[in-house]
Design goal:
206 residues, alpha/beta, Rossmann fold, five-stranded parallel beta sheet, four-stranded mixed beta sheet, globular
Amino acid sequence: MDYPGNLFVVAAPSGAGKSSLVKALRELDSHVQPSVSHTTRPPRGQEKHGREYFFTSDQEFDAMVAANGFVEWAHVHGRRYGTSRKAIEERVAQGADVLLEIDFQGAIQIKQAFANAVLIFILPPSWEELRSRLERRGEDAPDVIELRLANAASEMAQAQKFDFVIINELFERAVFDLKTIVHAQRLKYAAQRRARADIFESLNIT
């Protein structure tokens, strides 16, 4: 289906800076709305239910899976994450530009459900920098960091399936790149035709 809004999907291995880039983009572009995913993992730090994630029990998650309530869901680092199908459809149908932060498995599933979705992959500049960022974050035990690094290899191999790739070496440059992708997508013919159908019709452009 064609929707007036745009759907952006950002994926990256842990530590690549995905969340920081998306936060910076939202501060620069108020038209981009975040999509809040469901997860079975517990909250970290100052995270709040309904803001960073909908924190759900395994039983609640199972019920949504059974009801086909997720457009995508996946196991990530021993926990489950999912994106509500209804929430995405309603918002892009209303003309909103929605942005999802999810893993590569979910991004590929989103593309299958929403053909117009724009997939963006964030890469670190090096393995050394990725490890350093995970250690500086101070959220994970050493064994968890090793697991995230091991998973990163298979995750980054999926970058070829994405529409755009940003190398987060200099943060300010990476934010500019992300904002450029969002703006360029809005100016594509198909996106403009969906979003401003009234103008196209008044100009007899079909």
